[in-house]
Amino acid sequence: MAEFDLPKRLLHWYAVCVAASVLVLICSGGLVTSHGAGMAVPDWPNSFGYNMFLFPVSRWVGGVFFEHTHRLIASGVGLLTIGLCVFTAVAENRKWVKWLGGITLLAVVIQGVLGGLRVTEHNQLLGLFHGCLGQLYFCLVATIALVTSRFWRRIEPNQSVLRPIRFWTVVVTAMVFVQLAIGASMRHSHTGLSIPDFPTAYGKVLPPLDAASIARINDARAAQAAPPITAGLILLQYVHRVWALVTVVGIASVGAAIIRIGFIAAQVRSAAGFWVLLVVVQFGLGAWTIWSNKAADIATSHVFVGALTLMTGALLSVILSAMVAPAGPNPRTLTSEKEVAKA
């Protein structure tokens, strides 16, 4: 059997398609949250007592449309993930890749249960975990697509000079995840914009957090039929802004460092450049979300680009880790003895 025969090529492209479907699912979830439709369908796994797949199309209106279609997309992605797990077990010879397929299947099961419990238990914290796990699940599927590619098999290991840049790539990618988690906690508070202006915060560099100021802000929000906020929510959004700036600097610095390394493959340098572009666009979308008073399409685009930013950092981290791995027999590229004998 060839090292990259037809079944392995099909597995790679199937994983790419599954990753794309997960990104669509994340965007669908972003629309649900942006439209405040998380409880538009109050029961689960049924939809208003109907079997989820038999729910009448005529009732797909308003928030129900966003929540119900999200459930249907999630069901489709779950089935695709089962297929990915089986396909990986059959077509792959590397045990650790098979394990990745199994972990991905476990992740999608937990993700589905968390989404259902968010509805049945009316628990916003479960919604936060649901959103964060969705981002990690996306990175897992994208990693399978990477490690089943022809590019992965051409990576040259034992490049220890890259250890420092690998370290900082992992650190900055973790920073991106923290930023996404903070953003998810803001969205799932369902209180709108805690700080309505940008780049200032209530016209100042530092936001007002004293009790008197919070009372005045809530009086103004009540006049506009907006939900009340707390000092904690204002501080959370302010931290999100500051951390966004730190993350932009981190990605720009690491991305530029990768691009400057001449012996790295052109695909990796291009990915680093794309990472920098993504975080700049993401920062702009964050500002636009505020200026548009959290318009649903802009906020969802912010979620979309955020997921791509995390995924790109995760894949760069995996690639650089493979490049600094010791040379010689390595589970990254090792085929079975039978394959070697037949080659």
The appropriate CATH architecture of the largest domain is: Up-down Bundle
Question: What is the residue-averaged pLDDT?
Answer: 89
Helices and strands: which structural class? mainly alpha
The string of secondary-structure elements, in order, is HHHHHHHHHHH
Count, helices: 11
- Beta-strand residue fraction: under 5%
Kindly identify the CATH topology of the largest domain: Four Helix Bundle (Hemerythrin (Met), subunit A)
Which word captures the global form? Answer: flat
Calculate Rg over CA atoms. Answer: 22 Å
Helicity, as a percent range: over 70%
The total domain count is 2
Strand tally: 0
Low-pLDDT segments: 330-343
Biggest sheet layout: none
The CATH class assignment of the largest domain is Mainly Alpha
Distance between the amino and carboxyl termini: 6 Å
